[in-house]
Amino acid sequence: MALVLVGVLADWQRLGQQFLEPSVALQLFPDLITVALLNTITYTVAGFAVGLVLGLLIALMRLSSVGPYRWVAMAYIELFRGLPALLIFIFVGVGVPLAFPGLTFPGGAYGQVACALGLVSAAYMAETIRAGIQAVPRGQLEASRTLGMSHGMAMRTIVLPQAFRIIVPPLTNELVLLFKDSSLVLFLGVTLGQRELTKFGRDLASQQANTTPIFVAGLCYLLITIPLGYVVRRLEARHATAR
Questions:
Q1: CA–CA gap between residue 173 and residue 175 (Å, rounded)
Q2: What angle do CA 22, 24, 26 make, to 5 degrees?
Q3: Are 221 and 37 a contacting pair, CB within 8 Å?
Q4: In degrees to the nearest 10, what's the CA dihedral of 69, 74, 76, 80?
Q5: Global confidence as pTM
Q6: CA neighbor of 50 nearest in space, from 107, 95, 100
Q7: What is the pLDDT of residues 91-106, one digit of tens each?
Q8: Helical segments of 38-94, H only
Q9: If you compute the radius of gyration of the chain from its CA atoms, what whole number of angstroms results?
Q10: Distances (CA, A) of 6 to 3, 135, 171, 219
């Protein structure tokens, strides 16, 4: 009933002029695709790669029989899962340069964003990878050891390949979350050519005194996240059927 009232009483003409003005939307191209969307994808992929490598290391430390390794891994996971991603971005973008004057990230702003996204996602990926490793029957690791394999070789060739097949759906879901978290680049100092979708939309909205750029940027997010969400559901369904 409330939705019906909103639909009847809303001033759709005014909303259309403010959020979906064709003349403003057309001015966004081609930079919306060639700069903003491309940068968003680049930041997401780079952050995912950093998070996956770091998350795998943290997961193995979490499962280690060496006490200090487990404590460090647990502290990292609790810390970075407990802090808002925005604070991590501020720490990487402002705190690190202040603490280490002259330090530059490889790739400049791209390296900063990859580091910030990687630090956040690694905490979640570590727990996902740990769960995947523990889901592999322990007997397979023991059987490989009886065949003369070292623990490291057994993990690389027997356990990890199976674990990653198990955790593909949650890792894909993490990719969706990273794609949206890349909007926090807004709080870093980036050049015009390094803007992602949210900052691009906000800057153009300020210039045009119209929120159409932000609305169009939101549509670009949906064009990526909805198909990825569908992929996650298909992978989860396939995994459930396989079990």
A1: 5
A2: 70
A3: no
A4: 160
A5: 0.89
A6: 107
A7: 998 888 888 887 888 8
A8: 38-62, 67-82, 85-90
A9: 22
A10: 5, 48, 38, 22
